[in-house]
């Protein structure tokens, strides 16, 4: 199923959500996002990439170049 939603991009994007269909019947929905510009895979926020993540820098992770 594909849906379009409005969301606050200052908050991290959700990867999955728990849904309760009936008492005792729980399921998970996994999200996939399309057409995003800059996205930080470390903190999950839009508008920056991994190399400029404030949370990553404050924890002291080093930048590793790939390829």
From TrEMBL:
Pfam families recorded = zf-CCHC_4 (PF14392)
Q: Domain named Zinc knuckle CX2CX4HX4C: which ranges?
A: 8-54
Q: Which domain of life is it from?
A: Eukaryota
User: What protein is this chain from?
Assistant: Zinc knuckle CX2CX4HX4C domain-containing protein
State the organism of origin.
Gossypium trilobum
């Amino acid at each position: 199923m594909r849906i379009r939603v409005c969301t606050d991009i200052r908050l991290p994007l959700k990867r999955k959500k728990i849904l309760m269909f009936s008492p005792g019947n729980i399921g998970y929905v996994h999200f996939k996002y399309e057409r995003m510009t800059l996205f930080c895979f470390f903190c999950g926020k839009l508008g920056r990439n991994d190399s400029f993540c404030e949370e990553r820098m404050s924890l002291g992770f080093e930048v590793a170049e790939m390829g």
